[in-house]
Design a protein that fits this description.
Length: 198
């Protein structure tokens, strides 16, 4: 069972989705949960099925004290790099919260201080704390919806299924058809075959 929080009820869990994707935005979410709440089945979003994520998203949004989602597009990612874009998305999500948290729990090992709010980075935090897991679910489900919508305009890339990540089908589509305005040009979009010379 995941811990409720580290420091108290006005603690925001923060996480992102799409950092390693070849296309689409990077999305961040910030979630403040009530101090005495326990969501059944809450876990790292990557370990849940789409149906489970959808159900939990409804519960999270219905019971959270506050939550917010923010997106940074591929053009910005290419301009300021993915690390800065991830932090920018997290800061944007925090700035949109209707309540200012007293502490931040951030998934991962790096974060740039937001205002004067103390923060703690937790590696694999979405497997340890409910508020980070909740942020993980919101970030992923909202980003997935964007990629599913973009899929309708760019069906050859199979974004409906791969959500912009580097599957074989996605890379083959890039090789055969080129890229779109939603691809991250600063990323290695194709694997280069290395020839070993003896």
């Amino acid at each position: 069972m995941l811990e409720q929080s580290l420091f108290g009820s006005l603690e925001a869990g923060v996480d992102e989705a799409g950092r390693g994707s070849l296309a689409g935005p990077v999305t961040a979410a910030a979630v403040i949960l009530p101090s005495k709440i326990n969501f059944q089945g809450l876990n790292d979003s990557k370990k849940l099925s789409p149906i489970q994520r959808k159900q939990l998203r409804t519960e999270i949004e219905g019971q959270a004290i506050a939550y917010s989602i923010a997106h940074i597009d591929s053009k910005t990612i290419d301009k300021i790099n993915i690390l800065n874009s991830t932090i920018k998305a997290m800061h944007k999500a925090l700035s949109n919260l209707k309540i200012t948290p007293e502490h931040l729990l951030v998934d991962g090992n790096f974060f740039i201080r937001y205002k004067n709010i103390p923060h703690t980075c937790i590696i694999k935090g979405d497997e340890k704390y409910q508020n980070i897991a909740a942020a993980s679910i919101l970030a992923k489900t909202y980003r997935d919806e964007i990629m599913e919508s973009l899929h309708l305009k760019f069906t050859i890339y199979d974004w409906e299924n791969n959500k912009g990540y580097a599957t074989k089908k996605h890379r083959e589509a890039i090789e055969n058809h080129g890229i779109t305005i939603h691809h991250r040009k600063s990323f290695r979009l194709l694997n280069k075959q290395l020839t070993i010379i003896f």
